[in-house]
Structure formats: structure tokens, C-alpha cells
Design a protein that fits this description.
Elements: H1 2-32, E1 41-44, H2 50-59, H3 66-75, E2 85-88
Antiparallel strand pairs: 1-2
Amino acid sequence: MKRNKKIKIIFLSIIILSGTALYTYFIYENIFKPNIKKNTIILIPSGSDFDDLLDTLNENNVVIDINSFIKTAEIKKYKNKIRSRKIRA
């Protein structure tokens, strides 16, 4: 009986650790993978918000995965830190 319980605990631990490792990898991949298509300069006008920035990026076809960009911006709290400037992408 004790042997069965140990096997179940070990098996459950392996599943939990594997799931955690996969989740961590996907988060890491979303934040640190290259997400820019081409070398260009983007001008963010004063008074722009995050939606304006997304529109500019989509119009210029700069970002590979816009959803990944949005999630990363949320994680890094960039959505509230938009300021006017010229960005080399």
C-alpha cells in the first residue's frame, strides 16, 4: 500500500514539474523572442495611447505577433507608459 502511494506521489510530482516547466518556457518565449519583421522607424505622436501605438504598428506591418506584443506590454506595464518619441524597430 505504501509503495503505491509513493509511486502516485512521484508521478504527480513529475506531471506538476513538467507542466510548470512548459508554462515557464512559453512565457519566456513570448517575452524574449524577436517580434519585429523589418527594420523601420516608428514615430509615436504626443497624446498617443496604447491603441494608437497598436494601430501604428499594424499599419506599418512591423510586429510579427501582435497578441504576444500586447501580452508582453501588459506584463511589463507598458500600456500606461506611452510617450511621444521616435523608435527604431
